Structures are given as C-alpha cells and as structure tokens.
Predict the structure.
Amino acid sequence: MMTMGQRTFDHFEYNTDLQQPVIGKLRRRKERKEKEDRIFNYTKPSDWIFDERDWKRAVEIREHERIYSLTSETAFQSLVFSILSQKEKYSKQVSMYSKLKVAGFLEPRKIIDEPIRFSKIMKKSSLSEDKIGYLTSLSEFWTSSNGSYFKRVKKDLKSDQSNGDQLRDEIVKNVKGVAYKTASLAFLKYGYEDFFSLDIWHLRYAKSQDVFEKIGLKNETVLRRLEIPQNRYKKVEAELGKIAKEYDESLENYKVTNAVMDACIWGKYANWTPKAKEGYRNNYSCNIFSHNTEK
C-alpha cells in the first residue's frame, strides 16, 4: 500500500522526498544495530568485574610488555612495532617486524637511505602503502631530532614523567599516521604509567561504564571507525583514569596506575599468555625485548 509522497520502485518503497529506497534505510539501520551488538554489546557490565586473577594477570602483562633497558634503538623499534599493529593481526604484525629486522630496516637512517628496497619488503607482506609512509615519516622525525627527542623521553622517565603528555603530543603532531592509540602503545612499553592504548576491548569497557555518555560522545561516532576521535581521546583516558584511581584506593595488594588498568582491561579477554609472549621474546628475528635485563 502506497502513501502520499511514496511510490513503488522495483518492489521497494521509494520516498520521493529523500530520493532513496526506504528498505535501504531500514537495512542500514539493521546493519548498524548488528555492528553495535557485535562491538559494544559483546560484553555486559557484569562481565567487567575484576578479581585477583585479573589484577595478577595485568601486572604480568605490564612486566612482559615493558622495555626495561630503553635505548634510542629500542625506543624507535617500539614505535615501528606499534605502527605495524594498526588494524593488523598479531601474527602478521610479528612476521613483518621480523622481516624488517632481518633486512636491517629497524634503523631509521636505513629506511630513509633505501626507500625502494624498504618498499619492496613492505609490499611483499601485503601491508598498505600507508604504513610505508608512516614508517618513513617516523624515521625522518627520529633522525631530524638527532637524538634529542629520545634524550628528553629518557630524562622524563627517570624523573616524574610530568612531560609524558607533551612528548606524546609531539609524536602525534609530527609523525604521519601515528595517533594517540599508537603513540600510547609505544609509551606504555617505554614505562610511562599515565596512558591508555584504547583498542576494541577498552572501547567495550568504556561503553559498559557509560564513559562515552559522560563526555557526550555518541556510540555511532565510535562505531564509524572503531576508535576514539582524537579530540576526545584524552577525555576518555581521563574517565578511565578516574576508575583506575578508585581501584588503586580500594586494593591493598596492587598499585593500579593507568598502565596497569590498561593491561587489566585488555588482558581480561584478550588472547595473551606468558608462554606465547616468551616464544615471541625468544625469537631472535623479532626480539624487541632482547635488552630486558634491568628491572
């Protein structure tokens, strides 16, 4: 049955005002709902009750993921590793990192000096052209600072980490393709305690705690790209930081920093085990943690 303003169109209802099939709008609405259920409603608030095992696992993850003997070389490699992680399966990320290490392309100067060979290696692994540009941009930033950027990071880590936010902003501003999530992942490996690297598990947790609602961020905005908009990233971090502080004040056996909270959220359901991580750690061709001898 047709109503005023509509006519039949190939067995679909067609709205002459909107100039699109109504069935198409309903299908898109259904697809959005299915995506929201798959992403956000995959877990319920009750699924995010942390117990002793979760906090123990978080500390373990933190210890395994952190680079204790940080040098300019391992700091750069950590950023390379973090860039390779963008929208990529872990196995492929590790494989690509391994190939770059074997070929000697974990040195910024070599990436700049041999762009054709570097591109060929990246393309053989079916990585996007974007990541070639991202790693080249990172190499240019790293070499142009002539070691001064890393020295500032190292100095800040040895003091009170009060300049961490500024140093992270500097990377985000100057390196193409590195947003807060990627930069935070590297900075957590450096040893910073104030950051979150917000992946899909953190988005699920934030949704379950009404974080998006508190800062006026619509679910649809997050769903569109499955990440936090850059102008809201620090607000989400701040809200999650408040939750971390509450846990820190209530737990006697654990010091809950943002970094530990980050690991607890990620480790709750992510497929991570010390055994698997040791296999990666002991793989010479992909060993970013080879200098982890100091604690």
